[in-house]
Amino acid sequence: MSYFDLDYGFDGTFRSIRARGSRLVTQGLAIDFQLKASINCIIEPEYIAYDLEVKNYNDLIERRLSNSGIPCILILKTLPTNRDNWLLASEDSLVLGGGCYWTYLNGELSTNSKTVRIRIARNQLFLPDSLQWMLNNVDLGIWPC
Length: 145
Known about the structure:
Blueprint: E1 12-20, E2 23-38, E3 41-43, E4 47-53, H1 54-65, E5 72-78, E6 87-89, E7 94-96, E8 100-103, E9 115-121, H2 128-140
Parallel strand pairs: 2-5
Antiparallel strand pairs: 1-2, 3-4, 4-9, 5-8, 6-7
């Protein structure tokens, strides 16, 4: 078994931190995330549509259905179709082209063979404020619902 065979259905974890004296320490609950990036996103007026692999979809749905103490969101990074616009770098800035959206999938496990089309509301931009909102509400026990 190699390192790359260890797929737990999530790519990372967000945690709140606070200062305790001169140290930073974690506080509160965590939020796991699965991260996808693709040029194969369909930009609709109100939604971003994306064909998520069934195994990834079912990982996220099963996690929600199990009432895990740690929610797992999907973060979708839309990439421009022109690869030259994926990353723009200069002395003054580093820009990743395309938008970044999040969702907390709800539904039933899929029996599809390859993909499940999901739609993420375009107002669910993944921004520092939205992540802070999620972390605060998880700590308060009012999200996820």
